[in-house]
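Contributing new records

If you add data, match the layout below exactly. Sequence lines come first and carry their own label; structure lines follow with theirs. Keep one chain per record. Anything else will be rejected by the validation script.
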Amino acid sequence: MEFLLTSLVVCVTPGTGVLFTIAAGLSRGTRARAGLSRGTRAAVTAAVGCTLGVVPHMVAAITGLAALLNTSAVAFQTLKYLGVAYLLYMAWSTWRDKSELTAERESEPRSAGRTILTGVLINILNPKLTLFFFAFLPQFVSADEPYAFLRMTELSAYFMLITFVVFVAYGRFAAAMRHHVISRPRVVARMRRVFAAAFAALGARLAFL
């Protein structure tokens, strides 16, 4: 229960993945299928991408590669600044986006593959996740645990499930609010600037981590 509660707090706290999922829910999104709105489908797709981006960090922690990353300043700094560069790119592209959000005619919706890839990259290039798994998982596995590998894998799977559920909830809420803002160009422009500033701020914060 302590692990689940702590994981929930970590996932609910807004970060790069949450921002990307909310932005996807407010965007044009992917083509609608099975009765889902484009914003909702885009948000769910973004949540899938962000959740898959957790896997490399989980594997690194479980196999002990996180220990090497944590003790190697060069490896850590390289990964950290790759993450910073990608966040700044997200801020720049979001700020430059001048397209209108419309409910009817949307010529080139973002593909599901591109949305998933972006979500994966956002979390892969976040060294805080590796450090989180490396420092957090061992606290819930006893030293004499006969199946420590399986236990850590199980806990990591719970964390991924919580991540997906929380991100979908954020995204669906954003998608539900989408129609209240798409008819207001100034609101949309301001929201894009807020997202761009948030991505830039998170990048700056990560740079000085």
